[in-house]
Each structure stands twice: as structure tokens, then as C-alpha cells.
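Bumping with the actual sequence this time:
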Amino acid sequence: MAIRIKIPRGKNLLGSVTHPAVKFGVAAFLIACIAFFGAFAYYYVRYQKIIDKRLSGPIFSNSAKIYGAPATVKLGEPLKLGTVAGELHRAGYSEKGEVDSRMGTFKLTGSSIEVDPGPQSYHTPEAAIIHVTDGKVDTITQPNGNQLEAYELEPQLITGLFDRENRVKRRLITYDEMPKVLVDAILSIEDKRFFQHGAVNYYRMLEAAINNLHSRHKQGGSTLTMQLARGFFLTPQQTYKRKAEEMLIATELEQRLSKQQIFELYVNQVPMGMRGSFSIRGFGEGAQAYFGKDIGSLNLQEAALLAGIVNGPTYFSPYRHPDRAKERRDIVLQAMADNGVISQTQADEAKATSLKLAPPNVEASDAPYFVDMVRESLLSQYKEGDLNENGYRIYTTLDPDLQKAAADAIDIGMKQVDDLVRKKRTRRIREGKGKSAKTITKVLPGPEAQVALVCIDPHTGAVLALSGGRNYGFSQLNHALASRPTGSIFKPFVFATAMNTAINGTQPVFTPASVVDDDPTVFQYEDKVYTPKNYEDKYYGPVSFSFALAHSLNNATVKVAEMIGYDKVVDLAHAAGIKSVRATPAMAIGSYDATPMEMAGAYTVFANGGTRVSPIFVSSLRDARGDVIQDFNTDTRQVLDPRIAFVVTTMMEGVLNYGTAAGIRAQGFTAPAAGKTGTSHDAWFAGYTSNLLCIVWVGYDDYSDLKLEGAHTAGPIWEEFMKRAIALPQYKDGVKDFTPPAGVVDVKLDKITNNIATAVCPNDYDAAFIDGTQPSQTCEMTAGDQRNFFQKLFGIGPKPPEPTAVSNPNQPVTPGQQAATASSPAGQPVPPADDQDKKKKGFFSKLFGSIKGDNSQNSPQSSSPQPAPRENPRPQ
């Protein structure tokens, strides 16, 4: 049956209104509504697909995590239990009574802390109780009653293995991991009714619009959900179309996710500023970047600052604009008080505190050059996607305390280098003519000096600290891996080859007391000639090997290399890991290239009893559960006899005690140490104690000549670093005198005759010898010795350049020459004594005058040497 609708005369579907204009308006309205809802439906479906795609997989790209070396707690060392608790918190442990972390838990009491590693810990899950009395660790006990002498804590997270193209740093946190004080701070300043309203707070938007008409300071009306929608899916440009899209996406997000999930996405996505060349995203990374803390350890004022800078991370940067940041923090604190989440008293007390920020030194906390090195190394074996998508954990050898010491030393030392460079470039220039002429001071333009520092454990090869430059944000070139001429830090390999004659049966046998002529010489090699120069063109005639190394005499060193054979020096250098070296006279004084990392590995030959240990910077790769995927080990190779390594070490002790690096002792560094300065186009210092080995390089990227000595540039940085390093509890007890192996004897020699010192010759020094090669005669003088004595007394100091001699490596060594070059106990030429201060006058200054300054490869430098002490070469 059909249904009929009867429309009265004069009526239609629009009602009783028949006026054409009204009918048109109503029709247009209906069409507009249909178009609006059609567009709404289109965009709703469109953004629904985008949201579904974004939420279907990992919302944030996962990344492998890079950890430092575990800190070790030892019996008897000073310890604050609160510090240990903080480190465990930062490592992901939870306190017992909270939600248990799979990384581990801890329980803090008045005098002890119980540490219980979880299934995802780096360590085997064995708990321990660390007990402290009077501020020192007195017992470390396992649950089974076993007493330990040391206990390793969980390694600290350094950073994520970031995407090289997308330099974003983020530490993902869950809603449950956020402290209440931070949640309250964010809500109070950004969206106090977030948990009550829907996706859009229309009242707040209207209020913000009205306020913006009457105020210069624009006020936002977006809810947290709208801010999340903007950050996830939209561009930052402010248009009405974008605002409508923002509201639509927010509505869909509220339908799909709970309020806690939306809040969690927000706190992990929001931009928090820049750190070096990295963009900081999320409050988890923000807490580390600004305070060096885990998110759970934030206090009231820190939480308020983080919540405040979200509004403008650049404008409110606490490092660049501390006054703005503090004012913004105080606004957040007041908002929290107004909302009733804290009292007014709490707000006022927090406002009265100053900003307490972590040091802004990215190199100290994030070790970006080290992380780059780790990244490139692993990508040679694994795909980046596999490392990141599986959430692998990369455990490295980096010691965060030493890394901070390195960054601080570089910061201090490079300011001194800049001052020296500025003085070198400063000129007094006369401008104008006649009476209008005037003299002005002008600093010539030039490149900025760069730096590299590598510190390793010489016995394990573990890279403990590394900096590849002075500012990672400015330059990502890792100078620790850049090849440069090694300069005089190569010379110990020449003298080590010479000392090896005491072991391999080569004749003549050389010792630290052997003598070589330091005179201007033309060296012939193949069809070429080579004419090295000493520092300031000063030459000293017959000198001992110890003196030649301590004072870095170029001509003497090349002559030693010639006497023992250039090819033998090359063999030792190659075995030590310096592969670029070729058998030429220039090789002896460091004309060939190596990287600071390669030289660190090479110097382990001396610091590790003759055994070369390859540097290693990754110890273990594990999956997200903590299961081992691959452990990494160093390569070791016996290169020198331990006796030779010790003898060369004692010779390098002389570099610090009375040689080119005596300024390090003058600055108060008293620990037993050996080292060598180096100056070519660049400046170097290589040195080590019994437990730490450190290489420092300073130079220009454009390869131009630094024109400054290693003793005045790299040496002070080494001293600043080592002074901090050996003061740390984990290294302090390990700094000891170098221990001689069996078969080495220590002899006191007279400085004048180089024979055994007696009471008649009290001006002596210590020297180490392979047993059987030490001098046998005493210093009581023969007539020849007396002539040498008075010659030294009245004609002390370096000789002026004489006509250049021609060295012929093919000429056989005669018995007379052998006596003048080998370690003959009697009749050897007298080396210069050790006093550096040319201004001192009197008997002893004439008798023991000496030199200072590291020789450059070919051109002498003009820096004034600093005086060296006249003490024994080795500390007692």
C-alpha cells in the first residue's frame, strides 16, 4: 500500500515560509551542513588511517642503549650510600617497596645498602650488602655469607645509539615511572583539567582568545591532547586549518587511548631544547640533559623548571637565559600552589633556590666522539636496524668519571693554548703617515686549535676516556682517529731498539749510559741526504742516551737509529702497531703519521711490560633481556722483553723529572710517571702511570704548523687530566712506582763521568740496566776525567753549531768508535748535566747547566723553556 503525503496549498518541505530569499538561505545552510559533515567524515577517516598506522607499530623508534663501564665499590674506600642509591636509580633499579624493576632493586638503611640485581642486569643476579662505617666501606657481604673485597655496580646508561641523520636523543619513560611532582607541574602549567575534560577545552580556548586581544603575551588554549596531535602529525605553522585538524586528531586520540596513555606519549614526544648537536626530546632525556638525573630523582624545583621550559625550550634555556628560566620556573611553582598540589610555603621555598644545573659540557656526560666510534665499529658487523629495533644493550669500557676529567682538562688546557696562539699571532702595526701615524695591536687571523685525548688501561687495553675534539657541536671529526705526524713521541721506539742489543746479542751493546755525539750532521740514505736540526739549533756534543731522550735531541736520536739500523727500528714500530713508518732517517724523529688511538696502543709496549695490548672500547653486546650476543676481547702480543720495557720507562721518567716535560713536575704532579713530549707540525704528549696511559694531541685541522711545543700545549692538558684521574678512588690506590722485573739492576751514576757514583761524587742520578751491562768502574777521576770535569766547569752548555759532519752508515765501527758509542765503563765522553736555569750563576750552575725544549722535526721553535729541577731523574 502506497503512502501519500498531502502538502497543503502554499506549503512545501521548507515549511510555511515561501519567501525566495529565505528559502535560498535555508537551502544554503543545509548544503553547508552537508558539506561540513562530508568534509568532517573525509578528514575523520583520513586521519583515522594515519593514526592507526602510527599507533600500530612502535610509536617511537627504538634504539640500542650504550652503557659505560661498571663502577666498583672497594673495601676501605670513602663512600656515600646516597650516591650509590642515586647511581642505582639512574641505572634503572627500583627501591624495594616500589614496583620491582627487572633491572634490579635496592634497599637503603642507615649504614648499609642492599643491592639485588634483576634478570635483566649486566651482572649475574647475586645480591650483596655494602656496609659503611665512618664514611668508609668496611664490609661487602653476599647472602651466603661470603665476604667480598669489591663489588661492581650496574653500568650507567650513556646514551642511545642515535640515527646519524636524525640527531634526536630520547629516553622513553612510562606514566608509572614519572614522579607525582612532575605530573603535577606539567598539568598545573599546561592543562590543569586534563583528566576531567575531553579532547578540546572550549572554555579555555575562548578564554585564551579573549586574553590575546588585550595582551602582548600570547596565551595558548590547546589541551595536552591537542599539543600531542600537533607534535605527532602536524607542522608547527599556526593557521586556522591546522587548528581544526589539531582538534580533529585530538578527538580521535581521546577515543582510541586512555588519558594515561596520552600523557605518556606527550612526555616522551615534547621538545626540550638542544644539547650540542642533538635535539632533546621528552622529559626522560630532559632530566638527564639539564640535571644529570634519572626522571624518578627530580625534586620540586627541578620538575617545575622542566615543565616550564616546554613552552619555549630556546627562549627559556637555563644555560643561555638563566633569568628567564628561573622566572618561568617560579610561574610554574605558583601555578602548582594555586592549584593546591603544593602549599604556598613549599612554592616560596622552592622559588628561593637558585638554578642547579648539570655542567653543560656535552663531552663530559655524553661522550659523543666515543659513541660515534662505538657506532661505526658495530655497524661494521651488524645492521643498524637490527641493533635498534631489537633494543640491544651495548656495554662499553668508558668510565664516566674519567670522561668528565678529560672534558674538564681539555676545557682548561685549550684556553691556555688559545692564549699562546693569540700571543703568537699578535703584532704591533704602524698605520698612517707623518704625525697622524699610530701604532695599533692586531691579532692575525688563523685556524682554531683542535685537540684529542685518549686514556686507556695499559694492562687491559680498555679505552676509559676519549675526546676527539674541543666542541662536538662545532665539529664531529674525531681527531683521536685522525693520522698526524707523531713527532718526538716516536723517539722511545728508537731507544728501545737500541736497548734491545742487551738481549739479542747484537754488538755493540747499548745502555742508557751509552754516549752519542749530538752534532750537526748530514745523513746519507740511499741517494738522498737528510739534515735534521735541534731545538733552537743548539748542539751538545757527546751525550748519554738517557740525556738525548730526556731532552729530545734530534741529531743524537737519528744517529742512534743509524747505528742500530733503521730497519730494526721499523720492525719494532710495526710490531707495536705504528704501520706507516718506513726505514728512513726522518723516521727516527717522528716524521710518519699515526693516530692518537694507535699511539695509545703502541705505548702499552712500554707501560705493560713489553706486551702490546690493542685498545678496546666495547666489552659486551646483549639483547633487551640482558642475554649475551657477543663478548669482545683485546689482542695481546709480546713485542719487547719486560726488562727492555722497564729500562725505557725509566729513561722516560727522566723526561718529566729533568727533561722537556719538567714543567709538569713544576705544576705539582708528583706521582710516579713516564712520558714523552712531541712537536712536529702538531704538539703531542704521551705518558703513563702504573695504571693509566694517556695520549694528548693538539694541532690545526688545515695541517698548518702550530709553532708551539708539546711541553707547553699537550703536556699541561695531560697533567690536568692525570691529576684528576689519579685522585679518583678507583685509580688512586693503583698508582705505584714502576716495578722492575727480574734481571734489572738500578745503579746510581755520577752525572759527570757516567760511572758508578761514590761519596766522592755525590751529584748522581739513578739509571736502570739489564743486569750485566751496567758500568763497573767508579767515578774516581783519572786525568782524562779531570780534563772533562774542568772542561764542563769552565765551558758548560751547548756547543755552537760546527761544520756539518757527514754520516756514513756503511763505514764499519772501529774499536775506538765502539768505545765512544757503546756502554764502555771507562773513557766515555761526558754528557751535559741537568740544570735548566741559564740565569743562575756560580759553580754549580756552570757545572750542571742543561737545556729545555722539545725538538721539532726540522725547524727550531722560539718558545722559552721553563727551568727543570736538578733532582735525581727518578723520584725516590
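The C-alpha cells above came from a reply further down the thread. Confidence is low (pLDDT under 50) at residues 782-796, 809-853, 856-876.
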